[in-house]
Amino acid sequence: MPRQNSLKIGVSGVRGIVGDSLTPQLVASFAAAFGNYCGAGPILIGTDTRPSAEMIKQAVIAGLLSVGCTPVDVGVVPIPALMLHVREAGAFGGIGVTASHNPIEWNALKFIAADGIPLRPNQAAELTDLYHQGVYSRVSAQEMSEPRSDQSTLSRHRDAVISIVNERAIRERHFRVAVDCCNGSASIATPAFLRALGCDVVEINTDISKPFPRNPEPLPENIGALCEITRQSGAAIGFAQDADADRLAIVNEQGVPLGEDATVALAIYHWLRIQPGPVVVNSSTSRMVDDIARQHDCPVYRTAVGEVHVVERMLQTQAVIGGEGNGGVILPTVNPCRDSFVAMALVLEALATDGVSISQLRSRLSNYVMLRDRLRCEPRDIAPLLRLLRNRYQNEELDLTDGIKVLWENKWLQVRASSTEPIIRLVAEAPTEAEARSLLNEALEILAP
Amino acid sequence: MRQLKIGTSWVRGVVGEALTPELVVNFACAFGTWCDGGPVVIGRDTRRSSAALRAATLAGLISAGCEVIDLGVAPTPLVSFAVREMGIAGGISITGSHNDTKWNALKFLGPDGALLNAVKSEELLDIYHASQFLLAPWDKLHPVDTNTEKLIDRYLEHLLSVLDVDAIRRRPTRIVVDFCNGTCAPIASRFLKELNCTLLPLNEEPSGEFAHPPAPSAVNMRQLASLMRCLQADFGAALNIDGDRIGFVTGEGVALSEEHTLPLTARIRLRRRPGPVVTNFSTSRMVEEVAAQYGQTVIRTAVGESHVIDQGLAEGAVLAGEGSGGVAVLPNSMTFDALLTLGFILEELAFSGESLASSASTLPQYFMRKRHLPCPPNLVYRVLDRFRALYSDSNPDCTDGLRLSWNDAWLHIRASNTEPILRIIAEAQTLQRVDELMEQAITYARRAVFGHVEV
Fold it and tell me: Which residues pair with B423 in a beta bridge?
């Protein structure tokens, strides 16, 4: 089997496999480049729960100190909490040591700008350029600062999220809530967060000393244990977070997963009632969002897949809410980044103020069936294949924001290159499973006859 | 100029452009690989840059799969003791030692607790240069162990076990110790309390800003010397940052040259346990006369702790030390250990009942001159070659630069291990002779250096 190149330096940061491509030398150099990019000031460092966190963190600290920055170690924290802390504390930037939903042998640096938002594509390109030039302004021993630590990240974030919802209304309901934190950084935050909202918490996978018990992506097939416990414990709702707590999946009171695309739809449904305004989602997100926004006469803007693209567009359009169909909800009132805690707070508030169950709330949204598939593909073959598809559908309405999206009146098909793996992703959404399936099959027939 | 020096058992440089985190990570990876991913003890000094070097060292060692035991701020001899006590693969002491605050370094210790000798250093450097490092997968990475209180207790027990504690305790002593804001104050205060001594600490707070240059030379002990009379102490001692060198000041406020440390320690050591002594070519002949009184020989090696200790172990020596104030009591300590040296001096004074001043006054009298001349690295070995030609009639020893030896005097000319300078050291029985030797050598050196410098 040919050796797969496991190092990815891109818009979303630097990712690689520990013990292979993500070496301490590389991490120290990138941290020095980032320190130079941000300027000699405080830089917050937070990690997820992976066993390689300590090694990576020390390399980051060494790199930052060498260029005159003051590394502030905030410990194990959810990534959205780290981003909020960077903005609130007036830090010069932040580094999240987390590979998000990637398997445990991976780790990554996620670079956060001083405004609490991940580096935008142009900023990421500038940083990468600095790294490639390899000339960093090192400080002498006398100018070097001392590393610090700060434990306030979780409480700052909890207060900020709870302040945007009707805390009393939620507390009065005393919801029983089941959570699955995937033994990730949410483990140390979510139970306390929900208890602060008066919830009776039934928790699984909240031990950060243990490895991930499941694939961290909160897909229906990965959260069977939560479904089971939600049903058995008589919880009103179940929440599954990914390992760095930016994405959320919801399980209803019968233990049935609603699918990750329901998360952003429910959050938008609730928030537009409070604050109508522009909505931004990526091009792979369900049409449920368009149906909801139409009721409030709010525009929906669609972007390429990726948190940074959505956030950038939200800032341009002054969107009130946004997100991605993978369970990432973005509410600029708190901080313009994906935040599973915001998603939980909004859904709980909707349940509390409307006095309904989660399945009743879900039934107010339109029903589509979304199906996904993937095709392994050498990077050099991707563009020709997409061209094939474009020719085939040239008479239909096409959206070329990210790969090729073909739109019909009540269904759509998207085919695009993954930004993280050498694969082509296919997504189809239609009113029925049969229609969605036939869209996928049609595309697969063209791509891999 | 990028000021970086890679020597036997250490890598040392000016923090910033030369000593970068990438370089330190590479060396830590190389050392972790040399240790085959086994457990490694680390300690660091109080320099501000040591926190940065620690982070880079941890990252490199962890990535090689080493379990790291972190002593925190700790003297080098404690790191050495911990390696031996735990029976593990090696240790790294992060310290610029006697250098000023611009500098920092990694000192590498092998499984015997001694600095890597020439052979082991070469193995380490081969790994470093080949950049073929062990890289442990994620499930073989170990958390850092910082629970090291017990090791410090055992180190103190070990120090006391080597000394005649009862004799020292019977003679209560008041000592002023200048810690130069380094690593030793907490351990030294416990150690001296056990010995029934009253400690009057000076510059004891650990800090990256040193009260004075850290080498325990007479010049750097002026503050200590000036305080002696008013403190009414029996004597004073100055430790360098990582606790491997020590110098002394008499109760009357006279700073002894750091050259006195080795011969003073030799007296008590050789009385209790006769055996060979090892020192370097630049060290005073005083120790040879002390050794001769006990019928023992002195073996000379190239300058550097790893050389004298390695040779000491090979010769079955009972003492190895240098004129810089670093002394190792073999085989009880495998590195220079300032606290143990202090313990021996206390024991010597308890045994003889003398003051430090009178004990020092009975050492043979020599006159020593130390000078240096700036000399760029690319020239220094050409200049040394010139000297070898000039003095070819006097049968020079060329092990470390060149050393000439006569009945009444010697002259040593060498490249510094730490700075781009040429060091010239001379010692003779009379002031006139030593000045003659030095003047002649300096004249030759100037001619050699400036003759090569292109204007």
Answer: B372, B414
Closest C-alpha to B37, from B82, B85, B93, B88: B88
Long-range pairs for A85-88: beta carbons < 8 A, 24 or more residues apart: A85/A44, A85/A46, A85/A116, A85/A150, A85/A152, A85/A153, A85/A156, A85/A157, A86/A44, A86/A112, A86/A113, A86/A114, A86/A116, A87/A114, A87/A115, A87/A116, A87/A335, A88/A116, A88/A156, A88/A160
Residue B424's pLDDT is: 95
**Predicted local distance difference test score (pLDDT) of residue B455:** 35
Instruction: For residue A310, give the CATH number of its domain.
Output: 3.40.120.10
Minimum CA–CA partner of A139 in chain B:
B16
Contact between A41 and A89 under an 8 Å Cβ cutoff? The reply is no
| A98 and A118 fall within a common domain | yes
Residue A2 has pLDDT above 60, yes or no: no
Of residues A10 and B93, more confidence is placed in: B93
Percent residues over pLDDT 90 in chain B: 85
Asked if residue B324 has pLDDT above 70, the reply is yes
Query: What is the chain B residue with the closest CA to A26?
Result: B22
* Pair A337, A306: CB distance under 8 Å: no
CB contacts < 8 A, A to B, total 125
As for the ipTM of the complex, it is 0.84
Chain A residues close to B140, C-beta within 8 Å: 19
pLDDT at A287 over 90: yes
- Per residue in B424-437, pLDDT (tens digit) is 999 999 999 999 99
Place of tokens 């409070």: A274
Q: Residue A58 and residue B15: Cβ atoms within 8 Å? A: no
* Chain-chain contact of B135 with A65 (C-beta, under 8 angstroms): no
Question: Which of B134, B138, B142 to probe the A interface (max A CBs under 10 A)?
Answer: B138
Annotated catalytic residue within A29, A100, A187, A340: A100
Sheet holding B327-329, edge to edge: B298-301, B277-280, B319-321, B327-329
**Can you tell me the mean pLDDT for A302-320?**
93
> What are chain B's domains?
4-150 (3.40.120.10), 170-361 (3.40.120.10), 367-452 (3.30.310.50)
Residues 14-73 of B with CB under 8 A from A: 14-17, 20-22, 24-26, 28-29, 47-49, 51-56, 58-60, 62-63
Same domain for A13 and A92, yes or no, is yes
Domain edge (last residue) among A334, A363, A392: A363
Residue with structure tokens 């050794």?
Answer: B291
What pLDDT does residue A3 have? 47
**Is residue B450 pLDDT above 70, yes or no?**
yes
> Average model confidence (pLDDT) for chain B?
94
Across the interface, whether the CB atoms of A29 and B26 are under 8 A apart is answered no
Is residue A384, in this structure, part of any structural domain at all?
yes
Give the residue from B14, B24, B63, B139 with the most A CB atoms within 10 Å of its CB, the best one to mutate. B63
Measure in Å the smallest separation between the Cα of A441 and chain B Cα atoms.
39
* One domain for residues A181 and A262: yes
CA distance B16 to chain A (A): 5
What does the pLDDT look like over B190-205, one tens digit per residue?
Answer: 999 999 999 999 999 9
- The per-residue pLDDT for B179 is 98
pLDDT-wise least confident of B95-104, B240-249, B296-305, B444-453:
B444-453
Q: Give a yes or no: residue A240 inside a domain.
A: yes
Interface of A with B in 16-35 (CB under 8 A): 17-20, 23-25, 27-29, 32
Q: What does the pLDDT look like over A417-428, one tens digit per residue?
A: 887 778 899 999
Say whether B143 and A107 touch across the interface (CB within 8 A): no
Please tell me if residue A438 touches chain B, with a CB cutoff of 8 Å.
Answer: no
Catalytic machinery residues of B: 97
Say if residue A434 is exposed, middle or buried (CB neighbours under 10 Å; 0-12, 13-18, 19+).
Answer: exposed
Q: Is residue A157 part of a domain?
A: no
Domain hosting residue A136, numbered range: 8-152
